TrEMBL record:
This is D-3-phosphoglycerate dehydrogenase. It is found in: Plastid, Chloroplast. It is an enzyme of class 1 (oxidoreductase). It comes from Rhynchospora pubera. It catalyses: (2R)-3-phosphoglycerate + NAD(+) = 3-phosphooxypyruvate + NADH + H(+). The lineage of its organism: Eukaryota, Viridiplantae, Streptophyta, Embryophyta, Tracheophyta.
Amino acid sequence: MAISKAFFSSSLHPSLHYSPSRPTTVSLHFPFPFPFSAAPSRNLRLRCDAADSKPTVLIAEKLSDSGLDLLRDSADVDCSYGLSPDQLAAKIASCDALIVRSGTKVSREVFEAAKGRLKVVGRAGVGIDNVDLQAATEFGCLVVNAPTANTVAAAEHGIALLTSMARNVAQADASVKAGKWQRNKYVGVSLVGKTLAVMGFGKVGSEVARRARGLGMHVIAHDPYAPAERARALGVELVSFDDAIATADFISLHMPLTPTTDKMFNDETFARMKRGVRIINVARGGVIDEDALVRALDNGQVAQAALDVFTEEPPAKDSKLVLHERVIVTPHLGASTVEAQEGVAIEIAEAVVGALNGELASTAVNAPMVPPEVLSELAPYVILAEKLGRLAVQLVAGESGIKGAKVVYTSSRDPEDLDTRLLRAMVTKGIVEPISSSFVNIVNADYIAKQRGLNFAEERIKREQNGLNGTPVNSIQVQIPHVGSLFASAVTDAGDIQVEGKVRDGVPHLTKIGSYAVDVSLEGNLILCRQVDQPGMIGKVGGILASQNINVSFMSVGRTFRGKQAIMAIGVDEEPNKETLEKIGTIPAIEEFVFLKL
């Protein structure tokens, strides 16, 4: 019997927006930053209005000389550091591009003050929390970042914190400088033979694992998307989240801050760890509940912590966590090496120059190229594609490494007449984004999939259906091959997780899961149950939900043969608590079930 906690939830309500003041731009706006624009040439052009003069690039935070030199070859560069919000708004109207780090907030007011001239915002680094992506999209401004240049620097800093913490370097240093000589107080622990759990096996996590292996540590990792082959090549074992935190002597965090990972490490999580565990965080401060960490340090559940990032930066001067005697801290130095700063400057400068020349970088966060007529007719299928991706990935067992997916489209049109780039990008978005800091769109979907070692295949099948010849897509099927599943009924005889859906009256529907036919509106939350096909099952489950004041929005049952097995799909408006789900699981005729957020 499986209970799956959802990765995250989303409610998508798109609207097609046309801006008369900029007649060459059509955008489909969603609550999340996934924009699409198209110029008549099918290429997004971001050139300055004054074609005969150089564009102006405003550098709001310090950038290394190598990046500045590259920019000066193509643009007039204005280095104005430490601008107040009002000063930035006053200058931006005369600028075609803006480059910032994490200290400058690029708000809606900045885009409004630019009056349409600002063509590109470059974030010299990975995170873009300080840029209002929705506003950037609405004002037709491209946003690019520099996600690769600081990988080694961040990994090295993680190892530096790991070793410093294990040997009490920071505390011993402060003690000696205070005139003390306390050798017995600062006895450390050896790393050889200890288990390190790397939570998030992307670029930085992989590099940390590589270096930790060199220190003689046994390395395990948790990342639902990490290919098992890549982990094995580094001598790393992929395990479930629960196994990772329960067996590790050291835990190094390398996951992004998303709705799923926000305060993922809390009182409950710490209680499930091995007593005396040591924690390193060079990822994002918000993944740790800092008050809970203080409690875990005080009661000895966590022996030590080494932190480079915090929920609020800088943290309060009287922060109990920062001042704790068994915590070592650094002021977000993960990317702070000469080499990393040089690399970030070059990477962001190249992306900004390319954008000003009408090119689209692989690091574009919100850049689209979809003809408006294609966008308009595919709008409802865009939602279906992403939700099928989200649904499929939630069914994957945590210890399985996803190697890729296959998307099968049936259409009454000839395969060459069906433009599926947008739909493939949305399936990629649904599969990748839940535990990633990447913003996936039609421009960067293939790039992000490749970076994560995911192979996406497509198949277009022409199938005539009565009354549907005018629709671009009849059905979309998402297959994730050769992975374990939290819901065995979703797995086909070939060993693939398979979900299929259609659009009916503009609403996406789940029509098949595994080999079972269902009819489920993909809205809200979903409970899937495999049961013995017998009378009264709907009433039993409905009664349990009703007793907890949980409203059922729809219910559908699909079965193989009468009296054999059936799949019951129940849509609920509210999220049931753990006790309610456990009650459903105690019904004798229910063989397995899973809870999903759509």
